[in-house]
Amino acid sequence: MNYRSGWLVLPVVAALAVAAPAAHSDDSGRHAATVLVKTAPLAKKTLPVLLTAYGTVQPDSGSTVHMVVPRAGQIAKLMVSPGQEVKRGQQLFEFATGAATLLNYQQAASAVKFAKSDLARTRELFKERLATNSQVATAEKALSDAEDAMSAQEKVGAGRAVQWVTSPGDAIVTEVNAKVGDRLDQGGTVLQLTERGAVQIMLGIEPEQADKVRPGMPVTITSVFDSSRRIDGKIDGVHGMIDPQTRLVDAVVRMEGKPAAGLLPNMRVQGVITTGEVTGWVVPRQAVLTDDQGAYVYQIKDGQAQRAGVTILLDTDDVYAIDGKLDPKLPLVTLGNYELSDGQAVREAAAGNAASAAPAGAAKVN
Fold first, then answer.
1. Mean pLDDT, residues 170-193 taken together
2. pLDDT digits (tens, 9 = 90+) for 94-153
3. Can you give the pTM of this predicted structure?
4. Per-residue burial over 337-366, b = 16 or more CB atoms within 10 Å of its CB, e = otherwise
5. Does the domain at residues 64-195 carry the CATH identifier 3.30.300.20?
6. d(CA 259, CA 148)
7. Which of 72, 191, 327, 353 could, after both became Cys, cross-link 98 (CB 3.0–4.6 A)?
8. CATH class of the domain at 23-41+288-357
9. How far apart are CA 284 and CA 42, in angstroms?
10. What pLDDT is attached to residue 219?
11. Options 2.40.30.170, 3.40.50.300, 3.40.605.10, 1.20.1250.20; CATH of 50-60+198-276
């Protein structure tokens, strides 16, 4: 058994001897492995703090007109549908006045006719001293009341049996709320018009991020299908409750300047909100390591790795913004740092050999 075990151990020892890192002796006689690393100079910059959210384009509520019926009646004809573009003066729907409304108008007209006749008769009687000043005043008041009632009926067009309602300007039909044959009360909405290009964005913010978003913050809007087109806007307001359907907090974005072309209602968009900025040492993500003591980086001083604890101020897709007691004159280790320990002897890779300094699986530096 001992004889066989000895044969098994010898190849393992030989393999370990081959895999052992190269060593050198320093002035004190200690032996330390030299690690090949890549470095970069430190740079302090100011970066924006960005928050990404997704949402939809909606008609701007501030540029939406509700086309309503001025009196009770029935929709006789409907000439438009949702999404249709209309021009100023274009016919939208025909409205037939209700029978009760027509009757009220006729009664108001009869009341005016009677009040005029009664006033004329009372004044004649007054001339013959058969009526008093009080009776004349009463007749005048009755005529005034009847004319006011008539004016109110005329104002809503109660005397018109049918009426075409036209568009007040160039717009898009964003909603149709009635159909032919529907009977509506006075003020009932038939459809909604929105000025072409007048839109607002409704972005969904995670509830735990909502307190970071405030009115006035700049937003860059892009279509989820075409990120090359960017439109600038600003946060107009943040809702104070969670949407029960999306479970997100809605933030309203309005475009700066004139209405933005290319944003159509119901389009899905991405919004990148600038919530602030951070100033710190901007380093590649792979330069920062973490352990039980927290985040740290390595700098090189006198040919040795020098560990420095840092705080991550900002985490982006490409870089970190960090803070800590760093020496801006010392190079920062960006690749090869996984093999280092504090005081480790290092040598820097030449620019052409940068790939050889990266441990397996490390990200490339552009």
1. 92
2. 999 998 888 988 999 999 999 999 999 999 999 998 999 999 999 999 999 999 999 998
3. 0.61
4. beebeeebbbebbeeeeeeebbeeebeebe
5. no
6. 43
7. 72
8. mainly beta
9. 10
10. 94
11. 2.40.30.170
